[in-house]
Design goal:
The complex is a heterodimer of chains A (about 325) and B (about 475).
Chain A (H helix, E strand, L loop, with lengths): L2 H33 L4 H11 L3 H8 L4 H9 L8 H14 L6 H19 L8 H25 L4 H29 L5 H14 L3 H8 L5 H9 L8 H15 L5 H16 L2 H7 L1 H24 L4
Chain B lengths: L19 H9 L2 H18 L2 E3 L8 E3 L2 E8 L1 H25 L4 H4 L5 H5 L21 E10 L5 E9 L6 H14 L3 H4 L8 H11 L10 E4 L8 H11 L2 E3 L4 E4 L2 E6 L2 E4 L2 E4 L22 H6 L4 E3 L5 H4 L7 H9 L6 E2 L3 E2 L3 H9 L4 E5 L8 E3 L5 H13 L4 E5 L5 E6 L2 E10 L1 E4 L3 E3 L4 E5 L13 E8 L3
Parallel strand pairs in B: 3-23, 5-13, 6-7, 6-11, 11-12
Antiparallel strand pairs in B: 1-2, 4-5, 4-20, 8-9, 9-10, 14-17, 15-16, 15-17, 18-19, 19-22, 20-21, 22-23
Helix pairs in contact in B: 3-12
Classes of the chains: A mainly alpha (about 325), B alpha+beta (about 475).
């Protein structure tokens, strides 16, 4: 397969996943901000911090307000990481390889972009809030489920499929790690159990893990268990362990004669998750652990780009 | 202007026999049903992204080419004649190109003046003496055919233009058929329509037949300028239908006199390129140095016979409008046959007596730039104002070599859905002719229709639409 094609497929999947994760992040931030008005600026600042968008936001809007932050992250096309911009980028990457994906995949991504553009164009004064916002976020998640479903349900499981999946899981691992990091970073020092319950609950809901938590632990919500669930549980589809297991397997399938180092790195990250214990992670410190994880996956992403996507002649 | 030939109705108002079953069916259809089907077609084309990018003032937008649901129907015997004529014409054109780049017999025989060929901007001296597989240059040809009324109520087919560089539109031929089958399956029970869906197979087979000598299992790619090109949909569509890679120039590189593409598994050799970019952009080392679309060193690999380009470099020398008047002579010269489909009578402004006729009668003529394409750079006399004609006359007078003129043909008209209901609109036909070891084509081609009342310009860049084209089985 052409390297450029693999590159487009990989980024198509990453942008689709990023749009979904941003929608999840905005959803949880919005819910929390409704419950604790005092901490509003903090929540939105944290949301911008997670995605590394703080300085771009400040350059455009200055002080952090809920309305501006929402606009910036949900529908602002000047922000290349906004949901709308991600949907466009996913569609454009898909457009570049429309002959490689099935027509169902192309039609799904194309329709998502057309409908997103139309629904945003129809907003009053271009502002997004209240029920419009929650409807939009739900819709983004739903379209992401649909893209994934149509990919798994219609595509031949060849290299093209593998590179799509590779993009999905690397992006998801990155997003779960960031979400965890910011919540623990911002919230752990506060010790007001009543409020905390809602915040941890919101975090779990943002990764569709609230019911799963109940099912797995049958007990009260505690931060170490949340960390355990989202980092080490292999059966939890958005956990770092589950994502890196997929990445490790896919790299085994697509390997070429340059990719030994990428495979070694992926195997190392995966093994640490597979055999790790939450007590040790908490001893190191969650923030340090997650920072290290994000650095390693970023390195791995670069390695993959070099070995497969934009190789030297 | 002469009578307009109506494809569906005879001059006495009767339905022509091959349209009768369609009319019967249509008369049973409630208008609401038809309107619904038309809307369905539009939304499906949007969803599939069967769009073309627009250049100029609305640059960057993607538009649908309007699709009309009334098919253009061609009786079997008419198509047989057309097919023979196309085979003959494309054969002669390929012989001409081969001759121009090897011995120039036709020039030595005095049929065409040397400056007509060698001073032509489309002539490529780099191609002199290059051995081309099977002596085929234009592997894919799109021949534009029109039909015009003759005195006495009959009509004749004419070739209006040959497209031998990178003719486009075949994807619409295929998608239009798919759409008709999806919207109106019951119609195909009333008609035996020859299938066209095998065109991508014919194309792939043709491309594989012309691979470099000594390569048993040639690897084929489609070369596109990229996703922002107006015909990108077609490039992607054909690559997908043939199951070959769609590449851009930056995916390819030359190493050791061989062409490779960069893949996730390392370099892979490329043998045949179905290229959808113009000669000028193919190789920055040989042609335009500022081209980022091509592959440095491609020409040297090509000249060494280690890769096939379809179409070959330099085919434009045969489809230029200044060469068009000579095609009937080519058919006589190379094949010793009389042309089966005739040319539209053409005045060459480079000849003094013809120029003075054109300048005097410009109001009745269609005047075209010899290098123009896409309906640009032309004047339709009867549809133009006094001032437009005067301005164009000055342009022709200043550079007569650059213009030809033809009588304004009354293109035949086919019933078409418009705002006010069904009305006749002018049409043309572009069949796609494939030349490899033999000459093959899918029956029919792309019918384009001018949607504005009275307009003769069918180009999609100028608001034309398309129709499904049915060649009947018997």
């Amino acid at each position: 397969m052409l390297s450029r094609t693999a590159d487009s497929l990989y980024w198509m999947a990453r942008y689709t996943e990023r749009a979904e994760n941003t929608a999840r992040l905005l959803d949880v931030t919005y819910r929390m901000s409704l419950q604790r008005h005092a901490a509003q600026g903090g929540y939105w600042g944290a949301a911008l911090g997670i995605t590394g968008l703080e300085s771009a936001y400040k350059a455009k809007h200055g002080a952090i307000t809920a309305a501006n932050a929402l606009h910036f992250m949900a529908i602002d096309l000047d922000n290349g990481s906004s949901i709308l911009a991600c949907l466009r980028a996913a569609r454009e990457n898909c457009h570049a390889v429309r002959g490689t994906v099935t027509s169902e995949v192309w039609e799904t991504l194309n329709t998502t972009w057309i409908e997103a553009r139309e629904s945003v164009g129809g907003l009053l004064q271009g502002a997004i809030q209240g029920s419009e916002l929650t409807k939009y976020l739900e819709w983004v998640k739903f379209r992401s489920h649909l893209s994934r479903g149509v990919t798994v349900g219609t595509m031949l499981q060849d290299e093209a499929f593998h590179f799509i999946r590779l993009g999905t899981f690397l992006e998801r691992a990155d997003n779960t790690a960031r979400l965890l990091d910011v919540k623990f970073d911002e919230l752990a020092p506060e010790e007001t159990p009543g409020d905390e319950y809602y915040e941890w609950g919101a975090l779990l809901r943002s990764v569709s893990a609230f019911e799963i938590y109940r099912k797995v632990y049958r007990d009260v919500i505690t931060p170490p268990r949340i960390a355990e669930l989202l980092i080490l549980r292999d059966a939890m589809p958005r956990s770092l362990h589950a994502c890196m297991r997929e990445v490790d397997q896919i790299l085994r399938l697509v390997g070429n004669d340059r990719s030994h180092e990428a495979r070694r790195q992926a195997g190392e990250v995966y093994s640490r998750l597979r055999y790790g214990r939450i007590e040790h992670i908490l001893q190191v410190g969650l923030h340090d652990y997650l920072t290290d994880f994000l650095e390693r996956t970023a390195d791995l992403g670069q390695r993959i780009a070099q070995d497969f996507l934009v190789p030297m002649a | 202007m002469a009578e307009i030939f109506d494809e569906m109705h005879a001059p006495d108002g009767c339905m022509r026999a091959h349209y009768a079953p369609y009319q019967d069916w249509l008369s049973l259809m409630p208008p609401v049903h038809i309107a619904q089907k038309r809307a369905e077609a539009d939304s499906a084309f949007h969803r599939y992204g069967i769009t073309f990018a627009v250049y100029g003032k609305e640059a960057g937008k993607e538009r649908l080419i309007p699709f009309d649901i009334v098919p253009r129907i061609i009786p079997h015997f008419e198509w047989q004649m057309l097919e023979r004529g196309l085979r003959q014409r494309v054969g002669a054109l390929n012989a001409f190109i081969q001759d121009i780049y090897s011995g120039q017999r036709i020039i030595k025989a005095g049929l065409i003046a040397p400056e007509q060929v060698f001073c032509n901007a489309q002539y490529r001296p780099e191609m002199q003496g290059v051995a081309v597989r099977n002596e085929i240059y234009a592997h894919i040809a799109g021949i534009d055919i029109v039909r015009a009324a003759l005195p006495g109520g009959d009509a004749a087919y004419y070739v209006l233009e040959d497209n031998l560089r990178v003719p486009s539109g075949v994807s619409y031929m295929l998608e239009n058929r798919r759409m008709m089958l999806r919207l109106f399956p019951e119609l195909f029970a009333r008609y035996k329509v020859l299938p066209v869906e095998h065109y991508p197979d014919l194309l792939l087979d043709t491309l594989r037949q012309v691979g470099p000598p000594g390569v048993d299992d040639p690897s084929v790619v489609v070369l596109t300028p990229g996703a922002y090109n107006s015909a990108y949909f077609e490039h992607a569509f054909l690559a997908q239908q043939m199951g070959v890679e769609l590449v851009e120039g930056k995916d390819l590189y030359v190493h050791d006199e061989t062409l490779f593409m960069r893949t996730t598994q390392g370099p892979l050799r490329v043998d045949v390129i179905y290229r959808r970019i113009d000669d000028d952009f193919l190789d920055p080392l040989a042609f335009r140095g500022d081209s980022a679309l091509g592959v440095a060193g491609l020409l040297s690999v090509y000249r060494a016979g280690r890769v096939t380009l379809a179409n070959a470099i330099g085919t434009g020398v045969a489809d230029d409008k200044s060469i068009y008047p000579y095609v009937p002579d080519m058919i006589r010269f190379y094949l010793s046959e009389e042309p089966i489909i005739t040319n539209v009578p053409t005045y060459q402004c480079r000849k003094a007596d013809e120029l003075s006729y054109v300048l005097t009668n410009m109001g009745e003529l269609v005047v075209k730039e010899t290098h123009g394409a896409g309906g640009y750079g032309m004047l339709v006399g009867p549809a133009s104002t006094r001032a437009e004609i005067d301005a164009f006359r000055e342009r022709v007078r200043a550079a007569p070599d650059k213009y030809i003129a033809q009588p304004t043909l009354a293109l035949s008209a086919c019933p078409t859905f418009v705002e006010a209901g069904i009305a006749p609109r002018h049409i043309d036909l572009r069949p796609f002719v494939l030349s490899g070891k033999g000459v093959r084509m899918a029956p029919g081609g792309l019918t384009r229709v001018a949607l504005k009342a009275g307009s003769l310009v069918v180009n999609s860049s100028q608001g034309g639409g398309t129709k499904d084209t049915w060649v009947l089985e018997s």
